[in-house]
Amino acid sequence: MRLFAILIVTVLSATAQDPLPPGEGKDVVVRVCAPCHGVYPLAQRHRTKEAWEGLVDNMESRGAKGTDADFKTVVQYLVTNFGVVVSDKVNVNKASARILTNFFKLFPEEGEAIVAYREQNGDFKDWQDLRKVPKLDAAKIERRKDSITF
Which of 18, 43, 110, 143 has the maximal Cβ count within 10 Å? Predict the structure, then answer.
């Protein structure tokens, strides 16, 4: 029985994968972030640089331990490995819910609502068609209407 337990632990250890890719700053991310919540949540998120900075600032205010240089390194590592690039334009007929959410600074439900509406009703012809999407704050779309392509 003991040999079986050792075998199971060995197999599980071998199959468990580190969710963080290698790279400069990984050790700092592990040291600063892992004590409170581990590193798995970080690997599940993709954010803009500004969003990562805000999250790291929030964690620092909640007691994360590190120097200013450590926090800068954490942000850089996260942006490099889990960053989202927001372009100057977005095609609302092709973009995923995540891209729409990041581009327009929407709540995730709003990005998903745009995609669901598009799938049900066909392509948008102009930015004002987006006003028809239920549960969407059209003012967020209007602010960036000149950046929309179809």
Answer: 110
Dihedral sign, Cα of residue 79, residue 59, residue 73, residue 53: positive
Q: What is the mean pLDDT of residues 32-61?
A: 90
Q: Is residue 91 within a helix (H) or strand (E), and if so which, with residue range?
A: strand 90-91
Query: What's the rounded Cα separation, in Å, for the pair 116 and 111?
Result: 9
Look at residue 47 and give its three-state secondary structure: strand
CATH code, 124:
1.10.150.280
8 located within any domain: no
Beta bridge partners of 90: 148
Provide the whole-model pTM: 0.52
Query: Using CA atoms, how far apart are residues 89 and 34, in angstroms rounded to an integer?
Result: 36
pLDDT at 83: 81
Helix (H, G, I), strand (E, B) or coil at 149: strand
- Alpha carbon 16 to its chain centroid, in Å, reads 23
Give the phi and the psi of residue 70 in degrees, each rounded to 5.
-60, -45
